[in-house]
Design a protein that fits this description.
InterPro entries: Ada-like_dom_sf, SNase_OB-fold_sf, Staphylococal_nuclease_OB-fold. The chain has 214 residues and is of the alpha+beta class. It is 23% helix and 28% strand. The protein is globular and about 50 Å long.
Length: 214
């Protein structure tokens, strides 16, 4: 709240003129504080709209940054929504909100989302990365926000051979052992992790003919 001393308004005209520039600067500062975009927020997910969109209590509608899920009128879209429900609905999430735009054209907050671990964000549980790794979303690297999706896979444990039983690419239909020469060529933004051959096959992937996984 800004408190103005009313006595100042009845000062001599010269004093009022001197105060005007200072007040203008103060108003700009106050407005800037009100409209600035927070860079962190945490709250409970109270509604899942689809795989990449949900509502957080106390904030409103959130859109996962730089990922895209199928539409809800498709079987894949409903599967993506169910994946998000299973991980996020009713749970606390931590949001890194985009500093460049904040909201998209639909008024949704653009965020990278982290799951909660003992009252703090878990850097290993980046949900934007998780939903891509699950095969329910693809990367869409929009340049009008602050995020670089490649950074989500930069941790060594998330590289091919460092935490995935089998790997694939969103741009192919083959799955590999993590140390396969072809797996090593997969860009981090295209990487998908599979826990088993059956999971890879269920998503339409076939074994690599070079490393020959089961």
């Amino acid at each position: 709240m800004v408190v103005v001393n009313n006595k100042s308004c009845h000062s001599r005209s010269g004093d009022v003129k001197l105060l005007q520039p200072a007040m203008a600067i103060l108003l700009v500062f106050v407005v800037g504080c009100v409209t600035s975009v927070p860079d962190e927020f945490h709250g409970t997910v109270v509604k899942v709209v689809d795989g990449d969109t949900f509502d957080v209590e106390g904030l409103g509608r959130v859109r996962l940054a730089d990922v895209d899920c199928p539409e809800m009128d498709t079987e894949a879209g409903r599967a993506a929504a169910n994946y998000t429900i299973s991980w996020l609905f009713g749970r606390t999430v931590w949001l890194d909100i985009d500093d460049l735009k904040g909201r998209d054209d639909y008024g949704r907050w653009i965020c990278v989302v982290y799951l909660d671990e003992n009252g703090a964000p878990d850097p290993e549980m980046n949900f934007n990365r998780m939903i891509v790794d699950s095969g329910h979303a693809v990367v869409r690297d929009f340049t009008d926000n602050e995020f670089n999706p490649a950074d989500w896979w930069n941790h060594s444990s998330l590289q091919p051979g460092g935490g995935c039983a089998y790997v694939g690419s969103v741009k192919s239909n083959k799955y590999h052992y993590p140390d396969c020469e072809w797996a090593q060529k997969i860009s981090p933004v295209n990487l998908i992790c599979f826990s088993s051959p059956s999971e890879a096959r269920s998503k339409g992937y076939t074994p690599c003919r070079v490393c020959k996984p089961p």
